[in-house]
Specification:
Blueprint: E1 3-8, E2 11-16, E3 24-30, H1 38-44, E4 76-79, E5 90-97, E6 100-106, E7 112-120, E8 127-135, E9 141-146, E10 149-153, E11 159-166, E12 169-177, E13 181-187, E14 199-203, E15 214-219, E16 225-231, E17 237-243, E18 250-252, E19 257-268, H2 272-287, H3 290-294, E20 300-302, H4 304-307, H5 313-326, E21 330-333, H6 363-371, E22 375-380, E23 384-385, H7 390-394, E24 414-415, H8 421-437, E25 440-445, H9 463-480, E26 485-488, H10 498-501, E27 506-508, H11 515-525, E28 534-538, H12 552-560, E29 563-566, H13 575-597, E30 599-602, E31 609-615, E32 621-628, E33 639-640, E34 650-657, H14 669-672, E35 680-683, H15 684-690, E36 692-693, E37 701-708
Parallel strand pairs: 20-21, 20-29, 21-22, 22-25, 25-26, 26-27, 27-28, 28-29
Antiparallel strand pairs: 1-2, 2-3, 4-9, 5-6, 6-7, 7-8, 8-19, 9-18, 10-17, 11-12, 11-14, 13-16, 14-15, 15-19, 16-17, 23-24, 30-31, 31-32, 32-37, 33-36, 34-35, 34-37
The structure holds alpha-D-galactopyranose.
């Protein structure tokens, strides 16, 4: 077989894989009809010799390994004590079954081999790419660096979009013009990180939300990563994604393999929202467990911002009763229920219910919560230990560390080396004991510090092994407690990626519950994550992190566009705000099926606005959120062009939030179209091409419009 060709969704992938040749990508991108033949593509790509360069054109292989002689960034650095570093991988075997393919390539001299796997989602064309390197030699092979794949990207993709941020400010979108040289995202925090999301989008300068070409690539990995876009002297563009490895981190014994984290990669010619829809479908259909996917996402209550470490059983019971009254379905007891954990300086690691605060154990609270018809959830931070804990006193050697190097202080805690079986066993037993003896349906799995000194027991770097051990530990718990849902939290959104999502059910998007910040954080997260995994809570009136005060209407509407929850002291909230929250929760329940299964359309708009819509897959209904963030320069807000509707159908449009909307001046379009009562019926075509004039709204207002067909 000389070539593999996969046509799926709006994408075609053509791989050259002739026996004993370097495997390479001939084409990845726009869908090609059968009329286009591979030989023709090769002819069309003919290059000539240029003085001062190689006589023969050197093509980038799948890994751009040093032995190919490709004089640019290599995707592989592996050697046997300085020998066998110059591998050139030649195809031994290539197979295709429908929209999946494997290529096995090996260097007959260095005895390094890589098995590549390509799987395209038949509907969307989204690719899942794997690569496993095997040491076929008879001496150890050190793998210093390996990209899962190096993917050529057309040079018309002039822009790079990426997401960075900080604690309580995740998913800041950054767009810049690609430049000659290397754009590099390298993460050494040992967790996915707040500041270096492992994904990148390459697109045309003119690409917008509904039009234009874009390539999106994501590394499904919750640890160190290296993502690069190389714009070479030739003008060619190559993107490589892989784990970042410390020296000596991966040393393969003869016969051993290293599985590089998978890449998930999509192409579209229909704009950024279409690209996101491919990622959403992947996350919903491939990563989430079918039973979790099919259950409505329960409304959360989380105790953290209400009581922090100040646990009092009577107060928590009263809080639970209030939560049930406003419509909450899952009550989550956050940090502070175990050991000596009365603040963040002690107790981590001692996963035993605290006698001081729960003299009769957790059962009275769990019983109270379940009697109210809610599910109980609980917080763990398994990978961590406070030095002031019984666990650390008993096993000071269980932590990741570098000998004779002082640990970097970080929230008064250290990281356990969970790749050690005895450590993983301890954690499993403790978590299993709590879950096994209480009716608990949900775990918030937190992780609150970087791995600054990830040295293992024998002095080897263990950052990569730690992530694998994490996935294994979670799976062990899932096997023992298959109905328990797990949320991935890491000081907010520090561990949000498709690697962890294959082992969890929700991500805690950010510790900031400031609805204004959340509008942009959740918009950023939505580039890769579907709404049903984006945890979003209604926070206190005055945000604890930003100090900003926002109305309940704004906070609740923002939390509704995700997996909704509440995280505030319900016992001190004004009665009117509680009524508003109750109404918002009821509205969320009414529309969550649509929100969590529909297709997302973000709209391009001025910075002062954040607009997105969710359209049912059969286009029978839709919900659009229009967040007016700040004042704007123009007198009137723009027309709302409702992308994604069926032009041929007629929709009844209503303004469903804020409830009891009163126009700032009357009559307004809300009155003229009776939008808050009967609504008004219009063609999908008019609504999406001409759009609805938005009514005047104060800054920090979120309007929700619902459209239904009759
Ligand atoms: C992290 C989480 C918070 C909360 C605290 C508890 O910061 O992101 O949501 O659980 O830990 O200590």
């Amino acid at each position: 077989m000389d070539h593999i060709r996969i046509d799926a969704g709006e994408t075609s992938l053509i791989l050259a894989c002739a026996q004993a040749s370097s495997p390479r990508i001939v084409h990845w991108g726009r869908w090609l009809s059968d009329a286009v033949v591979v030989s023709e593509l090769n002819v069309l790509a003919t290059r000539q010799h240029v003085f001062g360069s190689e006589l023969d054109n050197v093509e980038p292989s799948l890994t751009m390994e040093p032995g190919t002689g490709f004089a640019a960034a290599a995707g592989l650095a592996a050697h046997r004590a300085g020998q066998d570093w110059g591998s050139r991988l030649l195809v031994e075997k290539a197979e295709q079954t429908g929209s999946t393919a494997t290529i096995l390539a090996r260097d007959p001299v260095t005895q390094v081999g890589i098995q590549y796997g390509f799987g395209a989602d038949p509907e969307t064309g989204l690719l899942q790419i794997t690569a496993e390197l095997t040491n076929h030699g008879d001496s150890p092979l050190a793998v210093d660096q390996m990209a899962t794949l190096c993917l050529p990207i057309p040079r018309e993709m002039t822009d790079i979009i990426s997401f960075s941020g900080r604690w309580a400010g995740e998913f800041f979108r950054e767009q810049l013009a690609r430049f000659r040289g290397t754009w590099l995202r390298e993460n050494r925090r040992g967790r996915t990180s707040h500041d270096s999301f492992p994904g990148v989008i390459l697109c045309e300068g003119k690409t917008g939300e509904q039009s234009g070409e874009a390539y999106g690539l994501h590394l499904a990995w919750s640890g160190n990563h290296q993502i690069r876009v190389d714009t070479l002297g030739s003008g060619d563009v190559v993107t490589s994604l892989g784990a970042f490895l410390y020296p000596g981190e991966i040393i393969l014994a003869p016969g051993e393999s290293y599985r590089s984290p998978a890449i998930v990669a999509g192409y579209t010619s229909q704009g950024l929202s279409a690209l996101s829809r491919q990622f959403h479908t992947h996350a919903r259909d491939k990563l989430l467990r079918p039973d979790v996917r099919s259950r409505p996402r329960p409304v959360h209550y989380n105790s953290w911002e209400a009581v922090y470490f100040d646990h009092d059983i009577d107060q928590l019971k009263a809080m639970a009763s209030k939560a049930a009254e406003v419509g909450v379905e899952r009550f989550v007891l956050d940090d502070g229920w175990f050991g000596s954990r009365r603040n963040d300086r002690s107790g981590l690691g001692d996963w035993i219910v605290s006698d001081d605060v729960y003299p009769e154990g957790l059962a009275p609270l769990v019983d109270h919560v379940t009697a109210l018809g809610m599910e109980m959830g609980i917080w763990f931070e398994p990978e961590m230990v406070n030095p002031d804990s019984d666990l650390y006193r008993a096993h000071p050697d269980w932590v990741l560390q570098i000998e004779a190097v002082e640990q970097v202080p970080f929230r008064h805690q250290l990281v356990l080396d969970i790749s050690r079986p005895e450590v993983a066993d301890y954690l499993f037993e403790k978590i299993d004991a709590i879950l096994g003896s209480h009716k608990i349906g949900y775990v918030k799995w937190d992780m609150n510090r970087d791995l600054n000194h990830p040295g293992g027991q024998d002095g080897q770097p263990n950052a990569f092994a730690q992530v694998q051990a994490l996935y294994d530990l979670i799976e062990r718990i899932r096997d023992a407690h298959p109905t328990v849902e797990i949320e991935s939290c890491s000081s907010g959104g520090g561990r949000a990626d498709f690697g962890i999502l294959a082992h969890s059910d929700r991500i805690w998007t950010s510790d900031s519950n400031d609805a204004r910040d959340r509008q942009s954080i959740q918009r950023g997260a939505s580039f890769f994550f579907p709404l049903n995994v984006i945890g979003s809570h209604v926070g206190p009136r005055q945000c604890h992190i930003t100090g900003r005060t926002l109305t309940m209407e704004m906070r609740a509407a923002t939390a509704m566009i995700g997996h909704m929850g509440a995280e505030l002291n319900l016992l001190t909230e004004p009665a009117a705000d509680l009524e508003t929250l109750k109404a918002a929760i009821a509205l969320y329940k009414e529309h969550r099926q649509l929100l969590h299964s529909g297709d997302m359309y973000r709209l391009d708009s001025a910075e002062s606005l954040n607009i997105s819509g969710i359209v049912a897959t059969d286009k029978s209904q839709a919900l659009y959120s229009v967040a007016c963030m700040t004042s704007q320069a123009e007198t009137f807000l723009p027309r709302l062009k409702l992308a994604g509707l069926d032009a041929a159908r007629r929709y009844r449009i209503k303004l469903i939030w804020p409830q009891g909307w009163r126009s700032i001046t009357s009559p307004s379009i809300v009155d003229a179209m009776d939008l808050t009562n009967e609504g008004s019926v219009h063609s999908g075509e008019a609504l999406q091409t001409l759009g609805l004039q938005l009514p005047t709204a104060f800054p920090e207002t979120v309007l929700l419009f619902h459209l239904g067909t009759e």
